[in-house]
């Protein structure tokens, strides 16, 4: 057997264990809230965006909806006023990492830096440490979960995603969400560009999405409010209001 081929094979196997193997652990991540109430959390990834985030925030305000924004640390650092405005409007600030680099391309040290640097800066800008982390593209690695424990963060993915890597028209997105809506759903949306044109399509889809969910009897809330009954331990809130 050729030694270089063996070495390459070993490295590939290690990478598969580090990235793909860990991807299976994502099953341990949170994808939805309890099904006991007709509550849904809208979540917005990849911002803040100077143009689109305020527009999306206006649409939410017009309908009295609070949501969770998974911000990219470096973009938040560039647009601190946007972060303050979202937080002041009552939305929840969560973390989407520092630079939106795929964690499949990050070793343990870079993984920690992506999480901890975003966490520190978002806490400074919003006045409260984020409690939820969403890895870019939902890709995790073996180092991530230890880092999240250290930072007191939980990995939150989604149960409904109307647009992923491929662009989808606003009407299609609205139909997708309304057809799949379920109690405890976490909806993955994008208020900034990863996929070209994504925030514009979202701005066209969002009013119909929100109105349709309201018509179906769903209350829209933040991830923190959605998951609170689970955090109380037995699926029922025991906390005195
Ligand atoms: Zn993203």
Can you summarize this structure?
With about 240 residues, the chain is an alpha/beta fold. The protein has helices at about 5-25, 50-60, 75-80, 80-90, 110-125, 145-150, 170-180, 200-215, 225-230, and strands at about 40-45, 70, 90-95, 130-135, 155, 185-190, 220. The protein is globular.
Quickly list its features.
single chain; 241 residues; alpha/beta; TIM Barrel; 5-stranded parallel beta sheet; two-stranded parallel ribbon; 9 helices; binds zinc ion
CATH architecture: Alpha-Beta Barrel
Q: What class do helices, strands and sheet pairing give?
A: alpha/beta
The third-level CATH topology is: TIM Barrel
Mean pLDDT reading: 90
- The global form is globular
Q: How can the largest sheet be summarized?
A: 5 strands, parallel
Tell me the distance between the termini: 68 Å
Number of strands: 7
The portion of residues assigned to helices is 40-55%
The radius of gyration computed from the alpha-carbon positions, rounded to a whole number of angstroms, is: 19 Å
Q: Which distinct ligands sit in these coordinates? A: zinc ion
Number of domains: 1
| Unreliable sequence segments | 234-241
Number of helical segments? Answer: 9
Under CATH at level 1, the class stands as Alpha Beta
């Amino acid at each position: 057997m050729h030694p270089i081929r063996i070495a390459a094979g070993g490295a590939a196997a290690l990478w598969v264990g580090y990235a793909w193997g860990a991807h299976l652990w994502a099953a341990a991540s949170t994808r939805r809230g309890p099904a006991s109430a007709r509550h849904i959390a809208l979540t917005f990834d990849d911002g803040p965006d100077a143009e689109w985030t305020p527009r999306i925030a206006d649409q939410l305000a017009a309908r009295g909806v609070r949501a969770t924004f998974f911000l990219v640390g470096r973009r938040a650092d560039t647009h601190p006023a946007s972060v303050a405005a979202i937080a002041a409007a009552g939305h929840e600030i969560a973390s989407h990492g520092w630079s939106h680099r795929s964690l499949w391309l990050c070793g343990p040290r870079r993984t920690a830096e992506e999480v901890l640097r975003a966490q520190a800066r978002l806490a400074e800008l919003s006045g409260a440490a984020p409690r939820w982390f969403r890895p870019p593209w939902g890709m995790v690695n073996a180092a991530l979960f230890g880092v999240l424990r250290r930072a007191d963060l939980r990995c939150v993915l989604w149960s409904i995603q109307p647009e992923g890597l491929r662009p989808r028209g606003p009407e299609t997105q609205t139909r997708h969400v309304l057809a799949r809506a379920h109690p405890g759903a976490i909806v993955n949306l994008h208020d900034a560009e990863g996929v070209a044109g994504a925030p514009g399509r979202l701005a066209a889809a969002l009013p119909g999405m929100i109105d349709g969910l309201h018509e179906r009897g769903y209350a829209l809330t933040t991830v923190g409010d959605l998951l609170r009954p689970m955090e109380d331990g037995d699926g029922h809130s025991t906390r005195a209001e």
